[in-house]
Design a protein that fits this description.
ChyE-like, 243 residues, Class_I_gatase-like, two-stranded antiparallel ribbon, glutamine amidotransferase, GATASE, Glutamine amidotransferase, alpha/beta
Length: 243
């Protein structure tokens, strides 16, 4: 059986390794069944998509991808590399699950619109499934309302034609969508344990410390304790659906 591929844009080695481990635990895949493609100085390495059952494109530290927003040269370069990769994925009709900034890029590439009206900055939020979500195989077994970690400055304002909204949150009307039968995207980070992050946040608040602004600590908690959270079922279901 062919492996799956994880595409990561994390520039720091520690964050890259941590993200890969979180995906291993959340998908239930072994290392020989989840290969990693990471950016280097010349971009994303060539990928033979036919060698994989499906592709995960992880969230990115590079936000603000819409025209007219202030972006660095690195942000623009990474965004264009990912756009080209998504073009190849769509042409090859390979199953794909994109998260975070990757969802914004995919939304625009498919003809949707992205804006900064629904930003959510480093927090845990309740995500609610739509009626279509409750009927989708990737959300099978997932609670109708579940906690997930979010951190984004932009989000889908208008879905691409033919896309189906699968989940939403109070501050972000599109938290997950499907396009066709094998292209999925989530605004939240399904590999992170939102429940563990929420418990850590409440622990600090109960102790009288409301400065829960240590993003690295929160994300580290979410990655270290990952695997049993509701959102991990989405990743496992993706593997099951497309194996």
């Amino acid at each position: 059986m062919k492996p799956f591929l994880l595409v990561s844009t994390r520039p720091e080695e520690e964050a890259l390794v941590s993200e890969y481990q979180a995906y291993l635990q959340s998908t239930g895949l072994s290392e020989d069944r989840l290969e990693l493609a990471e950016f280097d100085l010349v971009g994303l390495p060539p990928v033979e998509l036919g060698d994989y059952q499906g592709v995960f494109v992880a969230g990115s530290p590079y936000g603000n991808i819409t025209a007219g927003t202030a972006t660095s040269k690195t942000q623009r370069w990474v965004a264009e590399e990912l756009r080209e990769f998504f073009r190849q994925v769509l042409a090859a009709e390979i199953p794909c699950l994109a998260t975070g900034t990757a969802m914004s890029l995919l939304t625009e590439l498919l003809g949707g619109k992205v804006a900064d009206e629904h930003m959510e900055l480093s927090e845990v939020t309740w995500v609610t499934q739509t009626r279509e979500g409750m009927e989708d195989p990737l959300l099978a077994g997932v609670a109708e309302d579940f906690l997930a970690y979010v951190s984004h400055t932009e989000a889908a304002r208008e879905l691409p034609a033919g896309a189906v909204r699968l989940a939403w949150s109070p501050n972000c009307p599109v938290q997950m969508f499907r396009h066709g039968q094998h292209i999925y995207a989530t605004q939240f980070s399904p590999e992170l344990d939102g429940e563990a992050i929420q418990r850590k946040t409440e622990m600090y608040a109960d102790a009288g410390d409301f400065r829960v602004g240590d993003l690295d600590m929160l994300v580290g908690t979410g990655r270290h304790r990952t695997g049993g959270q509701q959102s991990a079922l989405i990743l496992r279901n993706f593997v099951k659906q497309f194996s």
